[in-house]
Amino acid sequence: MLVQLGSMGVLVAVLAFCVVWVSSDTNKYRKLVWVTLFLTFDLIMFGAFTRLTDSGLGCPDWPGCYGHSNPLLAHAHISAAQEAMPFGPVSVKKAWIEMIHRYFAMGVGVLIIALMAISWMRWLKSRKQPMQRQVKFTPWFPTLLFFCVCLQGAFGAWTVTQKLQPVIVTTHLLLGLTLLAMMAWLAARQSDHAPVAASAAGLVKPAMVALLLLVIQIALGGWVSTNYAALACTDFPLCHGALVPQMDFANGFTLWRHLGMTADGDFLTFQALTAIHWTHRSFAFVVIAFIVWLAWKALRTAGLQNTGRWLLIVIGLQLFTGLSTIYFNWPLAIAVVHNGGAAALLVLLVMLNYKARLVPGRHAVSAAASHSAIVESLNQHP
């Protein structure tokens, strides 16, 4: 079974390698990084789809499906479970959604292993080119990515074996987004960027604050999703007709408990779900206001205008999809797009942090290195 599952992951990776191979980009490593970033983003979107369709237990074991590598071989077990619980978590459709998500995750894992192997090989081959070795092919970051994807896989297994315990599912989501942010950083490091104005240095701290605020908001959103609290408030801007409704923060934000239960084993109250939803909704306005201000500052900074423009577009999309989930009673497509918007904001803020913090310095180092090389050449050939 493990060999068959691994083969599915390799197949996904081979398709990505084919895209890189036929690409006109001469820097195949850089292209592979960007393709892996794109697939990691897609994986997060599909993970949201898996969670929102309640397919997380479509196959209640791990890594296979009732001990098999695909739902076709496990059809008898799935049919028996569905017959015993017609409205339960197991069905043929949910099993396929869950297993496709796992195949996809394995493929991304194979690509990250390839990135790590290539970076180590190039690092060892570039001993005679110290500057190239330092900037482009440092293997430590791809190696850290490998350990991160292994940890993510472990939490994926615990998500199933612990029966969708909210803290584990939320941690699984946050680790997936951490992986996405790391891939975005690696992609930024491999790419060439337009010169950035010196005034970008003033955005270093605000960009970090914006990233921190977004991570908190994503964690709150994950907590809403994993506790199925999206419809705890169905009106806006009020919640149950009040600006501050009756809420139970103590049970709502108790981390270590089973799904739908309090830490004491009682059923989670509606007031607890309201507290979860209301906190995410209220904090969203803080995040939106700060990111809009940061995007406006980026629009006025040479080299950051494009990133600032996209930040405004995506934050507007997030506001629209967030409100739409309330007004239109949580439609699946909009809810998935809302998750994707959060991931896109994360990538954009990582890129902004990279450009504001590292790109000006890297250009300065490169210029100094080029000047030193010219001087040394002149000294050797007067």
From TrEMBL:
Its subcellular locations are: Membrane
Q: Which InterPro entries match?
A: COX15/CtaA_fam, COX15/CtaA_HemeA_synthase
Q: In what way does this protein cross or attach to the membrane?
A: Multi-pass membrane protein
* Residues spanning the membrane: 6-23, 32-52, 100-120, 140-161, 167-188, 200-220, 278-296, 308-328, 334-354
Write out the pathway annotation from the protein's UniProt entry.
Porphyrin-containing compound metabolism
Q: Which UniProt keywords apply?
A: Cell membrane, Disulfide bond, Heme biosynthesis, Iron, Membrane, Metal-binding, Oxidoreductase, Transmembrane, Transmembrane helix
Q: Which PANTHER family match?
A: HEME A SYNTHASE (PTHR35457)
Its recorded name reads Cytochrome oxidase assembly family protein
Q: Origin organism of this chain? A: Collimonas pratensis
